[in-house]
Design a protein that fits this description.
six-stranded mixed beta sheet, 168 residues, mainly beta, globular
Length: 168
Amino acid sequence: MGLYVGGARRDPRKRRHYKEGVAPGTPAPGRGYLYEKPDGIPYFKNDAGTEYDLTNIVVGGSVTHTTNATLTSADFGKLIIMNSASNLICTLMSISATDIDKNLTIVRLGTGELRVQAVDSDTVGPSSVGGYLKSAETRTAPCISIGVVSATHWTFFRYGSYGIWLVY
């Protein structure tokens, strides 16, 4: 068994394979560990030493946008549907330490490009500060499940995500 992240489904060169094992120690400041334990569940450990079960993603309904959208704290736990033939921007809400463990899933329907934009000092995945994720894939309905793992950082989950997402 093992945990695959990255573009493994489409491009094996982007595959990262994590061996099953015990939880690692606490990572260096600003870093995190993604790993799988013998129970077969993927986990993330942040620089505070907090471990997160990445299969524990709760969806609390859905909301559909056909124009650019700015998310609020009321959107945590929801499925955000961005549906348009035009290019759209889904701007994430500003996050803080009180938001750690909260998550949401964003899916793009229609044919337009979707940009998922971080704000202020926040990052999403390995993006730059205030950076973004972009999916221009037209043959699928790409979706991404993301969660807050520190006061300024969103991470994306392999389980619950589909498609190719570019990071800026």
